[in-house]
Design goal:
This protein folds into two domains: 3-94 and 190-213, ATPase, nucleotide binding domain (Nucleotidyltransferase, domain 5, 2-Layer Sandwich), CATH 3.30.420; 96-185, Nucleotidyltransferase, domain 5 (2-Layer Sandwich). It starts with a strand and ends in a 25-residue tail after the last helix. The chain has a five-stranded mixed beta sheet with strand order 3-2-1-4-5, sandwiched between helices. The protein is α/β, with parallel strands linked by helices. It has helices at 35-50, 69-86, 95-107, 175-180, 192-204; strands at residues 3-8, 13-20, 23-30, 59-65, 90-94, 111-119, 122-131, 134-144, 160-163, 181-185. The protein contains five helices and ten strands, in the order βββαβαβαββββαβα. This is tRNA threonylcarbamoyladenosine biosynthesis protein TsaB. GO terms for molecular function: transferase activity. Residues 30-171 form the Gcp-like domain.
């Protein structure tokens, strides 16, 4: 049995989740620009409610991205700081995988296309097959214009569901993609509850890195961008 804490600030939402012997408790709030102030207090609340000291944690996890550059750094920094102090391993969890797992658990979806608005006319996107509480990435995560989104090769006939803010750009997505997507859940955001479940599974399989080796995944090389004049 294990105890893990996950932190996420990859979107406008801020969340924390605690896994303790298979039970999950979580906090989730949409609070743009308040991630730094809210993240660690939420984590402390979860531990206090469970009657656990910080030292009871076996590992830490965080939303590694893709997502908001600033938010990813906030969650990574908070999780790394705790992991360093406790001398515990750290696991980075994909925000897109978390979206897929949350949709699968809540709506029993099997074929999920998470997509997040990446700004600059692009989306972060991936495809997942979901079954029995697990998600499997098909292909790779990518950042690309919504006009170039496609269904996984050879799986165009499946009933896909789009999840996440990237699907607000539906009108510019290609017709073949639209034909294979039966539903879009635009308001879904990544959350630590799904992340801590993914992290617990990975930790049980022996995964986990030293805190200094874990980095956010931006997908886009151009982290800083200024509007051209």
């Amino acid at each position: 049995m294990s105890t893990l804490l996950a932190l996420d600030a990859s979107s406008s939402a801020c969340s924390a989740a605690l896994w303790h012997d298979g039970e999950v408790t979580a906090r989730f709030v949409v609070a743009p620009r308040e991630h730094t102030r809210r993240l660690l207090p939420m984590a402390r609340e979860l531990l206090a409610e469970a009657g656990l000291p910080l030292s009871a944690l076996d590992a830490l996890a965080y939303g590694r991205g893709p997502g908001s550059f600033t938010g990813l750094r906030i969650a990574a920094g908070a999780a790394q700081g705790l992991a360093y102090g406790l001398e515990r391993p750290l696991l980075g969890v994909s925000t897109l995988a978390a979206l897929a797992l949350a949709a699968h658990r809540r709506l029993h979806l099997r074929h999920v296309l998470p997509a997040l608005d990446a700004r600059m006319g692009e989306v972060y996107a991936a495809a997942y097959h979901c079954e029995a509480g697990r998600v499997t990435l098909i292909g790779e995560e990518a950042v690309l214009p919504p006009e170039r989104l496609t269904l996984p090769l050879g799986q165009e006939e499946r009933d896909w569901v789009g999840v996440g803010s990237g699907w607000a750009l539906w009108d510019v997505m290609p017709a073949p993609l639209q034909a294979g997507v039966g539903q879009c859940l635009v308001d879904e955001e990544p959350g630590a509850e799904a992340m801590v479940r993914l992290a617990a599974e990975a930790f049980a399989a022996g995964e986990g890195e030293a805190p200094h080796r874990v980095q956010p995944v931006y997908l886009r090389d151009q982290v800083a961008w200024k509007k051209s004049r």
